[in-house]
């Protein structure tokens, strides 16, 4: 059945290293979201794409984070350089926006990032 | 601006007891409201949603929620808790009109005891 996939599921890295997280949205979905989940801050929206164009990335630290959609089947979230405070679970979600209707966001299993 | 407040970060019930998880929202425009469930080490799964149709919404796993505009609430209930209901539950709000950006509450962790 259709689902959002994320790779890697777990990533341990050292401070200063580049981290790239990948997401494959559900085929046919035209919106992609990146969320970060931490104990302290809960679920935060980092970036939001529609039809591969970034609509809202106001939740993302611009100096070190970047999000792209090279094509409709791949979304990436990159951190360079990584810092210990970036340790969190990063979720990707996808959905379909048609006209003025709302449709469910489907979440991937997440990437658990640990920065030492 | 929109926001969600979930009252009680932890709720504990006995198996078979009523589950009540509270959610209050703030929105300057007609909202769409959602409850998501997160099991350990998994992503979020939609339980139910209110999108301006019936105010009493039924979801999966026996859960339901009632939209009360006068109280700005969208509490989640289940008549009889099951051990498998133990998880974290998130209330979320978005604007109507296809915008789709969800604002999540802080979450409520539900524990179910035998």
Q: Can you summarize this structure?
A:
Chain A is mostly beta strands and 116 residues long.
Overview of the molecule:
The complex is a heterodimer of chains A (116) and B (114). Chain A has 116 residues and is mainly β. Chain A is 0% helix and 53% strand. Chain A is built from no helices and eleven strands. Chain A has strands spanning 5-7, 10-13, 19-24, 31-38, 42-50, 53-56, 65-71, 74-79, 88-95, 106-107, 111-115. In chain A, the strands form two sheets. In chain A, strands 2, 4, 5, 6, 9, 10 and 11 form a seven-stranded mixed sheet that branches. A four-stranded antiparallel sheet of chain A has the order 1-3-8-7, with no helix packed on it. In chain A, a hairpin with a 3-residue loop joins strand 4 (31-38) and strand 5. The N and C termini of chain A lie far apart (36 Å). The relative contact order of chain A is 0.34. With 114 residues, chain B is an all-beta fold. In chain B, strands 2, 4, 5, 9, 10 and 11 form a six-stranded mixed sheet that branches. In chain B, strand 4 and strand 5 (44-50) form a beta hairpin. Chain B is globular. Chain B starts with a strand and ends with a strand. The chains are: A mainly beta (116), B mainly beta (114). The interface between A and B is medium-sized, with 24 and 23 residues.
């Amino acid at each position: 059945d259709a689902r959002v996939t994320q790779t890697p599921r777990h990533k341990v890295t050292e401070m200063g290293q580049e981290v790239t997280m990948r997401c494959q949205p559900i085929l046919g979905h035209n919106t992609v979201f990146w969320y970060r989940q931490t104990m302290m801050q809960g679920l935060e929206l980092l970036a939001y794409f529609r039809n591969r164009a970034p609509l809202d990335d106001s939740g993302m630290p611009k100096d070190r984070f970047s999000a792209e959609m090279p094509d409709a089947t791949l979304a990436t979230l990159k951190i360079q350089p990584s810092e210990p405070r970036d340790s969190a679970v990063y979720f990707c979600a996808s959905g379909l926006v048609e006209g003025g209707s709302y449709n469910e966001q489907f979440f991937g299993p997440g990437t658990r990032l640990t920065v030492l | 601006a929109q926001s969600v407040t979930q009252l009680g970060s932890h709720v504990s019930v006995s198996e078979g007891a009523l589950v009540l998880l509270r959610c209050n929202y703030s929105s300057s425009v007609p909202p769409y409201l959602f409850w998501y469930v997160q099991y350990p080490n998994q992503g979020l799964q939609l339980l139910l949603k209110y999108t301006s149709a019936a105010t009493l919404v039924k979801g999966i796993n026996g859960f339901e929620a009632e939209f009360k505009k006068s109280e700005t609430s969208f509490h989640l209930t289940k008549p009889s808790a099951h051990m498998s209901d133990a998880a974290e539950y998130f209330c979320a709000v978005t604007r109507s009109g296809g915008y789709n950006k969800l604002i999540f509450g802080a979450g409520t962790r539900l524990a179910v005891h035998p």
